[in-house]
Design goal:
The structure is a single chain. By secondary structure, the chain is an alpha/beta fold. The strands form 2 sheets. Strands 4-3-5-6-7 form a 5-stranded parallel β-sheet. A two-stranded antiparallel sheet has the order 1-2. The chain is globular, with a radius of gyration of 16 Å.
Length: about 170
Amino acid sequence: MDEFEIIFSEPDRTGQAVQSMIKIAIVDDEIHSIQKCENIIRKMKLPNVQVDTFEDSKRFHNAFFVNKEYFNIIILDIDMPVLNGFDIAKSICDLEINTIVLFYTAHDQYVFQAYEYQPFRYIRKELADKELPFALNAALQKIEKNEKAEKDDMPLTLFCPLPEQFPADGL
């Protein structure tokens, strides 16, 4: 795999380009899954990336929705107690914000249900070493494209259909 480096910049008060920090949240109730994900990201040596971890989906919910802590990318387990990944993804869709959701799960059976929330990628934990770097690189490219579009005043449209908007006979 080619080494990938992406630099996001915006001018500071002096007009010099300043790199933007990309914030990634990992939300998973299994500490070993969080550590695996963190290690993969660390090996990628991405510049200007901050990773925050949440073993408790309710704690993430409070940080993101109550305290308004923004994350560019959310790596989200699906099968968690209290609030599952679909609950969180639905809330993100309802906000219509420009946050990228990557589902990170050991459960292949949720892949079709996950489409209801339009995740950017569906990463299988057992294949995370291969799938996560590609997903993150694609997500970073999308962020760069969106930032450029915002600077060029191009409208961005995010749409996440709700389950009740699907036809009664399925997708």
